[in-house]
């Protein structure tokens, strides 16, 4: 029976040599051509700015910034940054006018992420103005401090508190400044933990922290437990001993939810093999980042082993039919290999990433993958693929976009 979710991986696995002709001389022109394609399609009218960094024009601005940071594109740096500024300026105007201040605090779907990326772009252009979006970003912390500031669920990555913390982490990494004070970070972490405790108690869960988003108890990176825990681990220095214990107990609880190297999209679901989700948003390709973070902090081999098993599943089932993107597409799968390369130094993972990159350009993929509505976008379209191709050229500093593990 044909798998409806992924193409068969017919590539032979690593035999000790990387693929020839996959260096800068091949990849740089492919990136430049993809960027040109994207810029022809990206809308820059204020009425088209919905979707935030996820699938709005702001994600394209982030991609241009990412490409401009890579030395191999130095001669295009100024053009890309200036274009990025034009795009992000319109997005900033759009979120400034957003009447729902709760949506302004959203990371991937609202204002917080757009302000963060605007600050990065302005700073790269040497503009003192970068302080303005940073100030707007900082002022949002009060919005997401109340325990249940969003009815749909206040803690996840796209619109909730974990996302706000993730944006602050990206800013620390890219700008080298701590945007929020210790007290502000502590209060947000405490709200996440208190919210998770209350939910787990109310629903009589056998573990200390749990969350829901629109009534669903997700486990994956997009809206679920794994990315919430990943952000708490990223700020674990701000937690009390008792809070840390709750977080680590929850990490181990989630590790025990594994079914055949994967995680169900929601708590308690049984994975049907022919229908399983192997996506960054739901499943092993996103959950792996939590265990990577756990491993980087305490070096317990079981966390690395969990990441490695996730990588094996992705090699088998990660050539996704849902398009080229990073949320539930081939580039999102391939980022797991770059993560594993950084964790292990094993070149096998660069080889596997090269194979997945190669597949995106095949006729089989073009003919058999679903068409994407926002083909230019960062999470669903080609902008995420471009970020991945650039990272393939610099694997030692590669990282899934806007999802910092190595900070």
Automatic annotation (TrEMBL):
GO terms for biological process: carbohydrate metabolic process; peptide modification. One of its GO terms (molecular function) is metal ion binding. Keywords: Membrane, Metal-binding, Transmembrane, Transmembrane helix, Zinc. Pfam families: LANC_like. It comes from the Eukaryota. InterPro entries: 6hp_glycosidase-like_sf (IPR012341), LANC-like (IPR007822), LanC-like_prot_euk (IPR020464). Zn(2+) binds at residues 281, 327-328. The chain crosses the membrane at residues 105-125. The keyword NADP does not apply. Coiled coil: none annotated. The keyword Zinc applies. GO terms for cellular component: plasma membrane. Belongs to the LanC-like protein family. This is LanC-like protein 3. It comes from Echeneis naucrates (Live sharksucker). The gene is lancl3.
